[in-house]
Amino acid sequence: MRQLFPVTDMTASTASDQGWSPASDREWSLDALADAYAYPEGGGTWLRANMVSSLDGAGQHDGRSQPLSSETDMRIFGILRGLADVVVVGAETVRLEGYRPARAREAFADRRAAAGQGPAPVIAVVSASLDLDFSLPLFTEPLVPTVVLTGSGAPADRIRAAREAGAEVLFAGDGARVMPARAVAVLAERGLRRQLTEGGPRLLGQFVGADVLDELCLTISPTMTAGDAQRIAGGPTVAVPTRFRVASVLEQDGFLFTRYRRI
């Protein structure tokens, strides 16, 4: 994997000592990648998104992101999960991608313990209607209870079904809809401040529209899909485009692993 930006993280002398230049290939250990993707220090809430896009802007192919991915992309996917307190995902993505509970990884055990985190991140599903299959392992067999984020006006029978399945229901809206900023705040109040969203596009668009997205980890896949697939973020256009600055760029096998932070 090559580090393309920032090239100043390793000085020329240090690079020479280790036998590589900042843009040359080298092996990245799990710890090195975890350090590179670490959340900012401090006690504030931080919401990052992890998405993949084709060269022509598709966020998925045949309804799923996996065809755009790679082995390295999935490795970074696992690292981002290993660093997070909570993974926030939309109900449609849960259905399409076949979400399962997050698992504990021994490689992250010490790092998570030192950060005061549980053995695995919480999965938080955003759903207004609660039209979810609560018999799935995501709800019945998680290492830590799955959270369902919904509005206070959600159907009472579906709220009851979620709780009976073992899910924790949190309200992040006064009506049927979930308010993105409220969802971020409700999770943070519960101590889940290192937040990661994996979409889908509709949910990410809502976070962008609410101006609560702090960071985007975007894998640019060297693929072309054509067609009419969704972009990584959907929904209404924001009045003023949100500006981000590039924080880092890695490359492996033609895939670009970029990280942008909101200005």
From TrEMBL:
Residues 46-249 form the Bacterial bifunctional deaminase-reductase C-terminal domain. Keywords: NADP, Oxidoreductase. Residues 1-24 are annotated as: Disordered. It comes from the Bacteria. Residues 10-21 have a biased composition (Polar residues). InterPro entries: DHFR-like_dom_sf, RibDG_C, Riboflavin_Biosynth_HTPR. Pathway: Cofactor biosynthesis; riboflavin biosynthesis. This is Pyrimidine reductase family protein. It comes from Streptomyces litmocidini.
